[in-house]
């Protein structure tokens, strides 16, 4: 009862003092973590020492040096009232959170009222980050595969006024905020994760009251392999007695393991180069490189191969050229593995050709060309296109034939003569055929035209008409054949159509037989012939 009465009197006193004497009051907010030392100030307006000061919390007097005294049972040894009226709290606990009221009287009879809100916050505690599905390496680094869906989960022990934030730091070392939440649990998912998502993921828990931050970082690696197979290739070695082979598989993470042959050891490298002695190699031999990776099973190792091959230069074996002109010899070689060294040589002694004004060497893709300027008879020799690699040497022989300039037009003259001869013969034959066209058409044959004695001229008519008439027959010739000349003409008219048959008998040779005896027989034969 005494405490209640004292509090009532204090409240009335503070209200009256604030109303009558122009007093003022302040309100502040302070935060602290458990275990900290907190100083709550009541008067901050100068260096005056208050006459008396009283502090209350939750309607209870907790400290006073004035008329109101604290109950001995309610005293807290952690609380200390300073000379300037401030209240010191050592080893703050979460139960100290609350509203504190202060009232101080200054020597000039002014009364100071203060309201302090104390927030005791803890944490963040136990901030954890879980990333799945992943594989944990011995150094605690997490590993996932390209293309998978990866989930992130951050959490902390519940504490008032906290916020979770997920950030990412990649190869560029730039922190990027992915998401945040005021809840104690944060969830985030990356669909179809890519190598660019490889880096450090940090889950940050922030106490918004004390601004205290706790971080938990996890490194995530994204393993990936190229969709293509490793690349195998042969390279030119400085010494022709050896072959260099290169096997590479770029774009895989982590670095793949490569091995040439079945008996060799795997080496962790992106590109593996080996040098082999040519004495151990042969034409059409196949060499294989095998690649191993974390994402590949042993039965699914990827490989590539190189098939060795001797050179095979190709080109024209014989070239003919006119004296005084230029000629270009071409040699192509692209089948050799490893690539061959190709060069032109001259003569049976195969002297190397030195480029200059006489000989011009040029390369166009796989073609090695030799241009010889101002050909002379001394250039009529063998030329050799020589290709060599570690497996052997092969040559292409080209014989150059040089023709004198005087014989340049011989072929043309012969060609013109033959063409003229063929044209003349064709003209003569055509003329003979044309002159005997009537005899050939009547079926008498080409060489029997002289034996025929009957010539019939037919005039085509627009209207068809069948007629039969008797034609007198001439007396037979001495050869026993009858000769009759018959001309048939058709003259169209408006009403009737007449057919006029003209007979031109050829005078027979004079014989002893009378003409009258043969006339009747001739008529009968003509009637049989002239019938349509």
Summarize model confidence as the mean pLDDT: 78
Name the shape in a single word: rod-shaped
Name the structural class.
mainly beta
Arrangement of strands in the largest sheet: 10-11-17-16-13-14
The residue fraction in helices comes out at: 10-25%
Topology, number of strands: 35
Q: How much β-strand is present in the residues?
A: 35-45%
Q: What is Rg?
A: 63 Å
Q: Tell me the CATH topology of the domain at 127-223.
A: Immunoglobulin-like
State the end-to-end distance: 166 Å
User: What CATH architecture of the domain at 127-223 do you see?
Assistant: Sandwich
**Main sheet summary:** 6 strands, mixed
Please work out how many helical segments DSSP would assign: 4
**Unreliable runs:** 1-22, 446-471, 493-519, 525-532
CATH 4th-level superfamily of the domain at 127-223? Immunoglobulins
CATH class of the domain at 127-223, anyone? Mainly Beta
């Amino acid at each position: 009862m005494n405490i209640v009465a004292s509090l009532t009197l204090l409240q009335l006193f503070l209200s009256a003092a604030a109303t009558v004497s122009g007093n003022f009051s302040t309100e502040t907010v302070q935060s602290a973590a458990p275990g900290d030392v907190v100083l709550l100030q009541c008067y901050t307006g100068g260096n005056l020492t208050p006459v008396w000061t009283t502090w209350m919390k939750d309607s209870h007097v907790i400290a006073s040096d004035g008329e109101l005294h604290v109950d001995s049972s309610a005293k807290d040894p952690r609380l200390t009232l300073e000379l300037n009226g401030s209240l010191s709290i050592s080893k703050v606990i979460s139960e100290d959170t609350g509203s504190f009221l202060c009232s101080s009287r200054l020597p000039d009879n002014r009364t100071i009222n203060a309201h302090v809100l104390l927030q005791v916050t803890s944490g963040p505690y136990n901030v954890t980050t879980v990333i799945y599905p992943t594989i944990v390496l011995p150094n605690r680094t997490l590993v996932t595969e390209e293309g998978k869906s990866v989930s992130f989960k951050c959490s902390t022990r519940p504490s008032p006024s906290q916020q979770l934030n997920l950030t990412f730091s990649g190869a560029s070392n730039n922190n990027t905020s992915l998401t945040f939440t005021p809840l104690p649990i944060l969830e985030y998912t990356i669909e179809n994760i890519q190598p660019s998502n490889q880096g450090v993921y940090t889950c940050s828990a922030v106490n918004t009251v004390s601004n205290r931050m706790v971080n938990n970082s996890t490194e995530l690696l994204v393993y990936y392999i190229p969709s293509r197979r490793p690349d195998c290739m042969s390279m030119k070695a400085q010494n022709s007695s050896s072959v260099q082979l290169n096997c590479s598989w770029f774009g895989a993470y982590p670095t793949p393991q490569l091995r040439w042959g079945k008996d060799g050891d795997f080496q962790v490298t992106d590109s593996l180069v080996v040098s082999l002695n040519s004495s151990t190699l042969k034409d059409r031999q196949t060499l294989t490189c095998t690649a191993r990776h974390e994402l590949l099973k042993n039965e699914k190792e990827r490989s590539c191969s190189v098939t060795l091959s001797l050179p095979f230069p190709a080109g024209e074996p014989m070239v003919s050229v006119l004296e005084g002109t230029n000629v270009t010899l071409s040699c192509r070689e692209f089948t050799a593995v490893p690539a061959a060294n190709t060069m032109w040589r001259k003569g049976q002694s195969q002297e190397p050709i030195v480029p200059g004004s006489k000989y011009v060497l040029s390369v166009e893709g796989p073609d090695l060309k030799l241009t010889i300027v101002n050909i002379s008879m001394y250039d009529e020799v063998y030329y050799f296109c020589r290709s060599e690699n570690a497996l052997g040497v092969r040559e292409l022989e080209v014989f150059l034939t040089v023709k004198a300039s005087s014989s340049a037009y011989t072929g043309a003259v012969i060609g013109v003569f033959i063409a003229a001869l063929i044209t003349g013969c064709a003209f003569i034959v055509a003329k003979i055929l044309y002159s005997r066209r009537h005899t050939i058409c009547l079926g008498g044959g080409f060489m029997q035209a002289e034996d025929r004695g009957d010539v019939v001229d037919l005039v085509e008519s627009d209207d068809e008409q069948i007629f039969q008439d008797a034609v007198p027959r001439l007396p037979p010739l001495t050869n026993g054949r009858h000769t009759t000349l018959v001309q048939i003409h058709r003259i169209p008219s408006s009403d009737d159509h007449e057919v006029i048959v003209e007979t031109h008998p050829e005078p027979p040779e004079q014989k002893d037989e009378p003409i009258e005896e043969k006339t009747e027989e001739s008529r009968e034969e003509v009637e049989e012939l002239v019938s349509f």
